[in-house]
Amino acid sequence: MFTDFLIALTMLTNFTLVATSRVNKAIQLAVFQGILLGLIPIAMGLGKHLHILLVAAAAIAVKGWLIPFLLRRAVTQAHIYREVDPYVGYTVSLLLCAAGTGLSLMLAHSLPLKPGSTPTFLVPAALATLFTGFLLLVSRRKALTQVVGYLVLENGIYLFGLLLVEDMPVLVETGILLDLFVGVFVMGIVINHIHVAFDSTDTSYLAELKD
Amino acid sequence: MALLLILLPLAAAALAFLLKDSTLRVRLLPATGALHLVLLLLVLRAWRELPHNAWLGLDALGGWVLLVVSVLFLICALYAPSYLSLRPDRDHRVFTVCILAFLGLASLLALARHPGVVWVAMETTTLVTAPLVYFNRNRRSIEATWKYLVLGSVGIALALLGTLFVAYSAHMGGLEEPLHFNRLMAAGASLSRPWLRAGFVLTLVGYGTKMGLAPLHSWKPDAYGETPGIVGALLAGGVTSCAFLALLRIYAVVVAAGEGPFARELLLGFGLLSMVWALVFMVGQVDFKRLLAYSSVEHMGILVFGIGIGGLAARFALFHLAANALVKSVLFLSAGNIHRSYASKQLPQVTGAIRRTPVSAGLFFLGFLAITGLPPFAPFISEFQIASAALTTGHLASGAAFLVLLGGIFLTMSDTVMQVVFGVPSPQRIRTPYKDTFATTAPLVLAMVLALALGIHLPAPLRALLEGASSALEGNPPVPVVSLTGVAQVVQTEVRP
Predict the structure, then answer these.
(1) Is B487 inside any structural domain?
(2) Which residue among A157, A164, A182 places its CB closest to the CB of B171?
(3) Cβ separation B149–A172 shorter than 8 A
(4) Are B55 and B113 in contact, with CB atoms under 8 Å apart?
(5) Residue B489 included in any domain
(6) How would you write the pLDDT of chain A (211 residues) with one tens digit per residue?
(7) Contact B169/A at CB under 8 A
(8) Domain residue limits at B92
(9) Is B123 close to A193, i.e. CB distance below 8 A?
(10) Enclosing H/E stretch for B59
């Protein structure tokens, strides 16, 4: 019951994410979503497995503390506070997000779940969050908002991973988490270089190379 | 000992980070490369059983791909000291550390027996190669780096989702973690089909982005065009080979589950599309490094096309992996030399390079002849065999399209290459102090000779390795080479109808 509530909240976060223009708020929302996901395994009553508890704690620490720290630093270094003039407007983004969520529900319906497992919204929520991440990645101009999109995309994948949480080896899960962290770290460095080179982090300036 | 294959380059990377003396640091590259190759050959000699429960272990498929990467790395590492001495203005520390770390991660990927570990290794290669793309530190290279990083990360995220889908299909089939490839393949029949199919599509898109299959290749011309030739060679022959291996691992599971025809149809489509796309963008291409990038898109297409035909063509696709890596290293390194000599990589500034840098331009021309499939070089063998396998197994339309595309690509590529090599020297050309030296050309000659030798004769141990590697792609449990942990168990050979 509480799990469904958390999953529903995750899906609602998607809508707020695509509708916000403030970069700081987008970061906050992605972080909030990351923490929600970290709580789901505990709400599923898996807190008694020590390794799941540890991985969930690590996920919350990385997504709720380390990554926002990196992103906020990038915000202050590059002085970007607003997403101005995105490629796709906020209203259209909202509509697309709604359509994507609907589609995810339909798509998830056609993929069978393991017989005997409790019916869950994890699969549609994962697909919807994945779609939201994509939407942010392709429709926003600022490099930082694109990183937020990447984080949301990863959140979607993490949601799906919860279906397998009891089975997944700790080694693999920590590897994935570490890669996410290093990925955002490297992207933060590149954003800083973009800012120095172009005096802006608008990725529409990055259009010199083409055929 | 196989574990050393991973640890040696990583330790060398750590050492390179700590070393203050830059000449010593640069010398680490050829030393590590040579040691890695020797180690790998020793490991490949010691054939043993590969246990079901091993997390790391070298099978024939991983061994073959790692051999290709290791040889390519050695060629690049031999070239690196002379190249870096031409660029005293650039920070060599990050370059050396990243390039060494890449070798370690490629070894991890080749040895990994679990899809999750394969994914982690692949993602990390993206992260360590991103600073290499940014070597020139200008606006153009940062644009290329951003595209490489974002597209690569998104692609690889999809591959992760695909990997999870495959894991869920095993979960539904009642298979417990850890899902080592041997277990996944042995339990092929019980995997859930819808999840496995969806998982394969996602991993194809994900690892396909890293390989640079059209239409997911848009980062490729930018990244290859803006990096030094040496990084281009490593990306085009090394990183793409790793991504191809990651894809083949999932493909082998899909085949073992009896979904081979579905997967092969997709691979065939992606292969031909990549070749068409490469052909279209090669027409009138004035930038010869971008031209090579599109050639790389084409050859990734040939690889998946060969797998898509299956059987003998799949074996020669694996052979083509080696042929492509060797010839691409000649092409990218000689293109880098020409670029250095003219301070430009575009027509009409660069014409008639054969007069100014005769050795590099001559090798560039030979590389072009080899990569477009002229005998007696190695790519001719693989391209010819893939085409004939396609035509004799009933893929008449695909086989004919394959041959037409190869011919078209030869013609369009020759247009630019002939001007670069033999054209009338342009009045706009710039003088630079660069001259071909022994150190900047000998590694290229070595690669060219290897490509020629492979085209004439494939030694028996390599043939055996190649046969073992291609048998894994037919859904047979992988041929064991060597394992690291656990007690050796006899690999159950499942009899398939």
Answers:
(1) no
(2) A164
(3) no
(4) yes
(5) no
(6) 788 999 999 999 999 999 998 989 999 999 999 999 999 988 888 878 888 888 899 999 999 999 999 999 888 888 877 877 788 989 999 999 999 999 999 988 888 888 777 777 889 999 999 999 999 999 988 889 999 999 999 999 999 998 888 888 888 888 889 899 999 999 988 988 888 888 888 888 888 887 7
(7) no
(8) 4-474
(9) no
(10) strand B57-59
